[in-house]
Amino acid sequence: MTQRTRPAPQPAGPRRGEARARRLARYREGAVTFALVAPSVALYTVMTVVPVGVAIYISLTDWNGFSEAMFVGLDNYWHLFDDPNSTSAWYVTAIVAVTGTVLMIGGGLAYALLLKERSRTNSFFRTLAYYPHVISALILGYLWAAILGTNGAINSTLKQFGIGPVGFLFEENLALITLIGVIVWAGFGFNVVLFVAALQTVPAELLEAAAIDGATKRQINLRVVIPMIAPVVTVATVLNLIGLIRTYDLVVSLTGGGPAGATQTYSFVILARSFEGTKVGYATAQAVFLMVVSAVLALLVTAMRNRQDRAATS
């Protein structure tokens, strides 16, 4: 009868050494990750988190920029809803943001569909569309003011034919339309570049298959191309909305908020009215509220896009 021999137990030393080596490797990996992430986190904290925190605190005070600030709680925020300047400015801002976004997205997409093929002619027209975007909005505003003003180039030319001056900048409704037109013209090229880049990523085989199946060019664009670039359209929509909600520089240089406040956007009211009136606490509350509205709109647009994507894949 053979007796089974038990294997000799392994010494604990090597196992402990391996565990220690693994822990050391994890610590080293964590230290490297921290060293890589820490500068970005520190910069983001200093440039974004701290200023936002300070702004929220100031918005809860009646600080005028000089004297000692006194805590007033949410009084500044309640005042936002009964301030006639804020109410009218939000109305103008909503018109500018919604109309401008629709025109820039729709027009930019249509223009990009026309110029999506690679050629020198298309490259020239893409550059021509994008060129206004690289010029300062302040300069563009002064340029168009010189063209559309009462004594501007267009009205001076009309005067030669005995036609009275057109109130591009001094009639309330027409001034708002002019402002939106200049904003769309200035931001149009940015959307064209985004959409052209997105269109060139659509697989050519997919378009050929749709054409072989008998789809028209219009059907291919509506049923194949646009759904393929929908994420880019969502990004462009968010960027346009947030950018137009914060419109300020073109208002300053083109219309100055006039006539009679017809083109005063919310950002213009914050910077040109509240801060100049030494209402720093109230102006900061307006800025914080604007930041919250921008964030909510961005989240809503993104959520709607995600819901449509889930519905399409289900």
UniProtKB/TrEMBL annotation:
InterPro entries: ABC_transporter_permease (IPR051393), MetI-like (IPR000515), MetI-like_sf (IPR035906)
Topology in the lipid bilayer: Multi-pass membrane protein
Spans through the membrane: 30-58, 89-114, 134-154, 174-199, 220-245, 280-301
CDD domains: TM_PBP2
GO CC terms in record: plasma membrane
Localization terms from the record: Cell membrane
PANTHER family: ABC TRANSPORTER PERMEASE PROTEIN (PTHR30193), DIACETYLCHITOBIOSE UPTAKE SYSTEM PERMEASE PROTEIN NGCF (PTHR30193:SF41)
Annotated protein name in UniProt: Raffinose/stachyose/melibiose transport system permease protein
Organism: Nonomuraea pusilla
Organism lineage string: Bacteria, Bacillati, Actinomycetota, Actinomycetes, Streptosporangiales
